[in-house]
Design brief:
mainly alpha, Arc Repressor Mutant, subunit A, Tetracycline Repressor, domain 2, 2 domains, elongated
């Protein structure tokens, strides 16, 4: 499918934001790489800040959509639900590697847009994680745990490979964009779920199909 000017602008911006940084990238840099007129960027996004906000919105709306697919399996049990969420989010981030890396890096910076994201998308994400964990506690599927600290650990497991891609590729020689990585890494997080959260349940060593 032929990419339109808007898609080319976003693709160029993500590449440059990753390689030169947001502040080190100019509108002219983006226009040159996308092979479009600067006016096209103004037409679609108004300015560079508008383009940044668009990238954040696209990432988090799709991220939450994948999370919600897993939430739909909560009636099958908290562990099954959490495994489905993990697989969906690992796959989504792997499928959108450069966007994920850029967004995760930007989220470490204290800025107005990051504070807005935290008060909307991140709060909704926390609500879903808390809902699953509380369900597992209520049914005694999960052992007594600190919800806040479990969320910290889960967030770290989900983000680390994509925030530290150079370490994975250059030091560990692991490629986070491969299907093998998605399945293998998801299974490692399943082990964590069963060893840390569940009561006397062996970790499942099988691939969970996203739905």
């Amino acid at each position: 499918m032929r990419r339109n000017s808007k898609d080319k602008i976003v693709e160029a911006a993500i590449f440059l934001f990753n390689t030169k940084g947001f502040t080190g990238t100019s509108i002219r840099d983006i226009a040159a790489r996308a092979d479009v007129n600067v006016a096209n960027i103004a037409y679609y996004f108004n300015n560079k800040q508008g383009l940044l906000e668009y990238c954040f919105t696209v990432f988090f709306e799709n991220y939450l959509a994948e999370l919600e697919k897993g939430i739909a399996k909560l009636d099958q049990g908290a562990a099954v639900c959490l495994e489905s969420i993990v697989y969906n989010l690992v796959k989504y981030q792997s499928d959108h590697l450069h966007l994920t890396r850029f967004i995760l890096r930007e989220m470490t910076i204290d800025s107005q847009i990051v504070r807005e994201i935290m008060s909307t998308y991140n709060v909704k994400e926390r609500f879903y994680f808390k809902k699953v964990i509380e369900a597992g506690l209520k049914t005694k599927e999960f052992q007594a745990i600190s919800i806040q600290f479990v969320i910290i650990q889960l967030k770290g497991l989900l983000s680390m490979p994509f925030l530290n891609m150079h370490y994975l590729t250059e030091v560990l020689h692991v490629l986070p964009n491969e299907k093998y990585f998605i399945e293998k890494y998801s299974n490692e997080i399943y082990k964590w779920i069963h060893s840390v959260l569940c009561r006397d349940q062996p970790a499942r060593q099988k691939h969970l199909v996203s739905s």
